[in-house]
Amino acid sequence: MKGVTILNSMEIVAETGHIWDIKCTISLIVLILGIISLVIIIHSIKKYDDVEESCWWCRTPVIILVATMISVGLTSTLCFYLQDKPTAYKTQYQVSVDDSVTMNEFTEKYNIISIDGKIYTVEERN
Predict the structure, then answer these.
(1) Long-range contacts from 114-117, C-beta under 8 angstroms, 24+ separation
(2) What ranges do the domains of the chain cover?
(3) What digits encode the pLDDT tens for the residues 46-77?
(4) DSSP string covering 1-69, please?
(5) DSSP 8-state secondary structure symbol assigned to residue 117
(6) β-pairing, 4-16 with 119-124?
(7) Fewer CB within 10 Å, N- or C-terminus of the chain?
(8) Is 5:95 a contact under the CB 8 Å cutoff?
């Protein structure tokens, strides 16, 4: 556009894949529940170790279940988090505007994001 000087351009993330929403939240809850269960088991083993020494076999399935919860929760959370990638980018420009350009004409072509003195941060309208 005549009268508009582009000083800088930058790409910003416009949209991301929203994988984090449900899947990652559920796996994070499983991870947290597994860690809490592990803390409770360790506490109970230390506290009641003398009383239930002959019952080691009843703790083993619970420990295996908790270890599985932690493993599944941690692995799922990391996998889903790493899949959350940007899917679209927008280009923003920092521009200066001459007095010859009318604001109506300028705002018809660009969305104004911010103004810092005489420098406008804008993006093109679709």
Answers:
(1) none
(2) 4-15+88-124, 18-83
(3) 776 655 555 666 677 778 888 888 888 888 87
(4) -TTEEEEEEEEEEEEE-TTIIIIIHHHHHHHHHHHHHHHHHHHHHHHHTTTTGGGHHHHHHHHHHHHHH
(5) T
(6) unpaired
(7) C
(8) yes
Q: How far is CA 90 from the centre of its chain?
A: 19
Query: Is-contact 58 9, C-beta < 8 A?
Result: no
Judging by beta carbons within 10 Å of its beta carbon (0-12, 13-18, 19+), is residue 110 exposed, middle or buried? Answer: buried
- Within its chain, how far is the Cα of 122 from the centroid? 25
Torsion of CA 107, 109, 111, 112, to 10 degrees: -50
pLDDT tens digits, 94-124? 999 988 888 898 899 999 999 998 899 999 9
pTM: 0.46
Residue 119 CB neighbours (<10 A): 15
Give me Rg for the CA atoms of the chain.
Answer: 28
CA dihedral 13, 18, 21, 23 (to 10 degrees): -130
